[in-house]
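Quarterly update from the structural biology core.
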Amino acid sequence: MKQVESMTKVRRSSRNACLTLGLALAFALAAPVQAQNDKMTPIPTPAQANAIELGTGALPNATASESWHSQYGSTFARNVTVATLTPYLPDAGKATGAAVIVAPGGGFRTLSMENEGSDVAKALAAQGVAAFVLKYRLKQTPKDMAGFEESMKKMFSSTAKRPEPKASDVISDLAPQLADSRAAFELVRKNAAKWHVNPNQVGMVGFSAGAMLTLATELNVESAKPAFIGLIYGPLAAVKVPADAPPMFVALAADDPFFGNAGFGLIQSWRDAKRPVEFHLYEQGGHGFGMYQKTTTSTGWFGDFSRWLTMHGWIKPAH
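Predicted structure, tokenized:
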């Protein structure tokens, strides 16, 4: 706990207004809001041969072990008790030196490991950017699928009634995930030469709850210092922005049922601090669109993100 306290004691209280609001709202599964193909089907836990344990220890007091299921044509992990980082590396000759830690979403109760994880990482690696999927530790859920589904229904039904937590409670609540994020940055920089990464060009992109973790990492983990951050359909409440805040890319659908009507304070906060920010508000797309190919313009977010990375020099323009 002392380690977490040392990470969060600086710039702590006022900058977590976004997280305070977000944790009260962002308990949505990282999946498209749609009725079709939404059945959760248990699947065997993959081998994950390339996953590297981050050394942050097992989740305290965990009783359920990691399990996986399929939904929306994609795969999800839950009850993650040991954090890992899985590299997706470009060919050495194509590597730009930039790297991205990818944080999937899922309300801190599950992780969208393909749509917001490996699919994103593979697309980045194809453009010369080293990508690393962060499988961070999660809140425990019932072991059986029926119990898990019921717990999620109860969580959704009480979202509007949940009292707003204190900022200090939010940070304490995210302590395991912040420790995992910190360890991920340390691991990438430690292996920078081997992975053809410039240690000063390591950024982070997150989705939904992963976006919350990405912003919390920038605001509270002093040693992380991401070169850039990407927040994809996360909460956008105002924060106090650090003087050295990195460039930020934000994408959200206007019809997002969780964050589409909550204002854009975060964007204004970055602008008021005169820090670089790019914001894409898509007319349609709902929540959890990720790398799913939909008919809405939200599907273009990754192309927009890639062009933004290119503009800043983290991707080499095609000739």
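Residues 175-190 form the longest helix (16 residues).
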